[in-house]
Amino acid sequence: MIKEDNVLNHSSFEIGIYTLGDIVPDPHTGKVISAQQRLTEIVDAAKLADEAGLDIFGLGEHHRLDYAVSATPVVLAAIAQVTKQIKLTSATTVLSTVDPVRLFEDFSTLDLLSNGRAEVIAGRGAFVESFPLFGYDVNEYDDLFEENIDLFLKLNEQEKISWNGRFRSALQNAEIAPRPVQKQLPLWVGVGGSPESAERAGRFGVGMALAILGGDPNRFKPLVDIYRKEGIEAGHNLNDLKVGVTGHTFIAETTEQAKDEYYPYYSNYWEYVNSQRGMSTRMSRADFEQMSSPDTALFVGSSQQIIEKILYQHELFGHQRFIAQMDIGGIPFAKVAKNIERLATEVAPVIRRELSK
């Protein structure tokens, strides 16, 4: 059994936000904003989060007309110019369909522009459109991921590299430039519910970002245990095996107000996403009430409710960071901005204080 005291430096707990940049109709007005406006609002949200004192801003990657962000490092570079302290991460980079050399160079450049604030969260992503788009076979996902993460970690360590693999051309004493401000770019692996992904993250000794979008958070505890067990057996330091939790979040004055305001956007989001997967199910209010109850992982409620859920999950996982997704389903920017303010001023200070005791 791993003691949590050996895992976490409580004073280092990080709180932030992330977005996937989805462009869907507002369920109340039917209005769809442009990709240009969505990108502008994303930059504004990052600026607000930075000014409010949050720790992390994450940006997802999709290659579809209903999402605004395909060039993650380009948008993060723009954000770097209007922020000062906040860490800038992908959330997630589809590592199986990107050249690790280009990925390293892009984020190393971002690291230079941001004075050492760049990170990468790598994963499969919610959709698979990048595989045919860039000429990869989705059936080779695991082999591609394994090879690409291995190469990325080697690029992190060496300015010049000779390397040979299966999916890309060999490297012969290749110069990898530029080098980042940080000694190495922090790399995390995004994990949904796959024990194999948790095992891989531990084996490589990188961070694990858990996407917990609902249900009982206890079901994710075995993934954290697998991750740490595999990491230790691979020879990695336990304190380097960091866990993050990500999840859908909406905060209001009271829990009932939060549920009343959030339900139209949340059900709208899932109806839209499920329709892209060939399903036409619609979430009822009763289903939503069950999904947002106090013992579930959906972060919807008053600031106190959110605090209690984060602290409960910390008892389970001993994690080092929490990143909230606040802008799904066509939520207007004004509501997103208010949520960022509540997270930064009402939730984060209490979490940091409680975990520093």
UniProtKB/TrEMBL annotation:
Gene Ontology molecular function terms on file: monooxygenase activity; oxidoreductase activity, acting on paired donors, with incorporation or reduction of molecular oxygen
Give yes or no: UniProt keyword Oxidoreductase.
yes
Q: Name one GO cellular component term.
A: cytosol
> Which keywords annotate this record?
Monooxygenase, Oxidoreductase
Q: Which InterPro entries match?
A: Bact_Lucif_Oxidored, Luciferase-like_dom, Luciferase-like_sf
Stored SUPFAM superfamilies: Bacterial luciferase-like
- Gene3D superfamilies per record: Luciferase-like domain
Q: Which domain of life is it from?
A: Bacteria
Q: Which residues form the Luciferase-like domain?
A: 14-319
One Pfam family it belongs to: Bac_luciferase
Q: What is this protein called?
A: Luciferase
